[in-house]
Sequence to fold (315 residues):
Amino acid sequence: MTRHRYGPDRPERTYVPHDFPEQTFDTGEIHLNYAVAGAGDRPALLLIPGQSESWWGYEQAMHLLQGHFQCYAVDLRGQGRSTRTPGRYTLDNFGNDLVRFIAGVIARPVIVSGLSSGAVLAAWLSAYAPPGTIRGAHYEDPPLFHSEVDTSCGQSLRQGIGPKFALWSKYLGDQWSIGDWDGMRAAAPAELPAWMLGLIPDTDEPPQNLKEYDPEWARAFWTGTVAASCDHSRMLAAVKVSVLFTHHFRMVDERTGHLMGALSDLQAARVQELVTATGNRIDYLSFPQMGHSMHGQDPQLFTKTLTEWAATLPA
Fold:
């Protein structure tokens, strides 16, 4: 059995070069890693990656976006080159890291776009960032309600993607303290639903994005501690800006009722209902044939969709 260890304590095993230079910002608790693309006279855009995705998941899209925006793509705490913080992976901590980053680095009102759990953080910023900070928020295939363990609407985390996070946590361990990649691959057929097996790479080494990821994130989601103080209904009822909501592939297993995808149509309708009730505009676009990451799968469509919507926001 081969054991693996990755992260900031093993940079020679973990990181690779990229097209855009990387920098760090000290929030007071962590060093937040980020990259910038585009001229400063263009509107500011903050890109927030999903779980197990580093900033460079946006790299191809940034080449296109930089003609329209000054883009800031970040590594959230516990991902990429940013600081690991055992016991402190919560939506509120992630969100406040970004509030400090916007104030200390971007220093002007910004459009935010996040994927997956990054989209939940885009929702967090659209609700809880200081007034005047956020111009508008793009929720890219957000697991709103679905990433909660005890949710008020539709399928919970454990009725969908959750078992994958449990597997990561069990065999990789917080901060890669176990690192049993081979054991995880061998156990997957017994511990995951059949449809989820394709989400576990059949490779001798973990893919680059997982090497840069603290698996304690997975445990925080599986146990529900990540959102213990951030109820999604309450958050969405506090949104204060215009929202673009792109909804990608989803399917409900008729036999089990479990969800394949980030959120169901029922959950998407509830998101729209809550945001609309705040008096703010929400533009919902359905892409049922699109994979979870539009910015990764089709950066041209992602850029077109985001720039066209951004052009409708007040200056």
About this structure: The chain has twelve helices and ten strands. The radius of gyration is 18 Å.
